[in-house]
Design goal:
The chain is 42% helix and 14% strand. The chain is α/β, with parallel strands linked by helices and 342 residues long. The strands form two sheets. Strands 1-2-3-5-4 form a five-stranded mixed sheet. Strands 6-7 form a two-stranded parallel sheet. Strand 2 and strand 3 form a beta hairpin. Helix 9 packs across helix 10. The longest helix has 19 residues. The two termini are 18 Å apart.
Length: 342
């Protein structure tokens, strides 16, 4: 969380209602019926410890084929006030951006920008939105360029260096080893485990996004399994329902999964060197299941940390897993900092 002004030059272009064509849904049903699952791995004991077993995928696939209703999920998503607008980006011209824009009834409401990551989408704001609106925040939640219903730039070089830096913050050097809390010790160990055991996706998406995209674009079940791995391993034992997993998958599958993968290629953190210090007042909600949570003293090497709150429940998808805790932190932090600049 950081305090920055909104761009005043953006005008709403039109409202948006999601309406996936029937032809796409018919094709999806055919692909699900033709899904080919492994038959020689039923009793295997050597696979990844991520819960994405053949049995689990088979059960979710059965639910998808027989019970899941995209139109119902689509209607729920369309309850969110959505718009598009053209945003001028130097060197890239106008980029048509999709976003949720939900206003608070409060007369002194504070504008707040909620940004998702991968493998999430604008829909991550759903649970936290009413809490923030009630607390006095106008909320804007965009689909990042290339995600969901936002345009993807055709030219190379469209980067988001801050996102890449957050993903790969290196361990700073200290003259004396800090006295870490139990929470911080756990965070360090988890970050090291993530780097060693869970970062292959980053290398694949960062080097071969288009090649991987052909497989994911063609196979909804393949895309589901790829998403399930991240939802399971990056959350803090959140009980993902079949409907949640499928909807999150389809929000990448229908628009096309390749362009979000491409973000990793453009923002290859392995090519970054010195991380610039961020002077903007920054707040951190620290959740134990976040795969690359760092100690506060590490974060203070790269940002002006003025708010820090640790929680005992929640992971990478905190707005979905523990919306009350994250919203509470956002209200405290932004209300406090907004008073200083309003």
């Amino acid at each position: 969380m950081a305090v920055r002004p909104f761009r005043p030059d953006i005008e709403l272009k039109k409202t948006l209602q999601i309406n996936v064509p029937d032809s796409e849904l018919n094709l999806l049903r055919q692909k699900l019926e033709l899904a080919r699952l492994p038959t020689n791995l039923i009793n295997e004991q050597w696979a990844e410890y991520n819960g994405v077993t053949v049995k689990k995928v088979k059960n979710v696939l059965h639910f998808w084929q027989n019970s899941y209703n995209w139109r119902e999920e689509e209607a729920r998503l369309n309850d969110l006030p959505q718009y598009t607008a053209d945003v001028q980006v130097a060197g890239f011209g106008d980029i048509e951006m999709h976003f949720v824009h939900s206003k608070s009834a409060a007369a002194d409401a504070v504008p707040l920008l909620f940004i998702h990551g991968w493998p999430g989408s604008f829909a991550e704001v759903t649970k936290i939105l009413p809490i923030l609106n009630k607390a006095g925040f106008h909320v804007v939640a965009p689909s990042l360029p290339g995600y969901g219903f936002s345009q993807c730039p055709d030219k190379p070089g469209f980067k988001n260096e801050q996102d890449a830096q957050a993903i790969t913050m290196p361990e700073p050097k200290f003259d004396k080893e800090p006295d870490y809390t139990d929470f911080e010790k756990r965070s360090i160990e988890q970050q090291r485990r993530f780097t060693t055991d869970e970062s292959a996706y980053y290398l694949v998406q960062g080097s071969k996004p288009r090649t991987l995209g052909f497989a994911m674009h063609d196979s909804p079940v393949g895309m589901l399994a790829w998403m399930m791995d991240k939802l399971f391993t990056w959350s803090d034992n959140y009980p993902w329902s079949p409907s949640e997993m499928i909807t999150w998958t389809l929000l990448h599958y229908f628009p096309g999964p390749t362009t979000p993968f491409h973000m990793y290629r453009e923002n290859n953190a392995l090519k970054l060197h010195d991380i610039p210090y961020e002077n903007i007042p920054t707040g951190v909600s620290a959740f134990p299941g976040e795969m690359e949570m760092v100690p506060r003293i590490w974060a203070e090497q790269t940002a002006n940390i003025v708010f820090w709150q640790e929680h005992e429940k929640g992971g990478h998808f905190a707005a979905w897993e523990n919306p009350e805790a994250l919203a509470g932190d956002m209200v405290k932090f932004f209300r406090s900092e907004w008073k200083k600049i309003a």
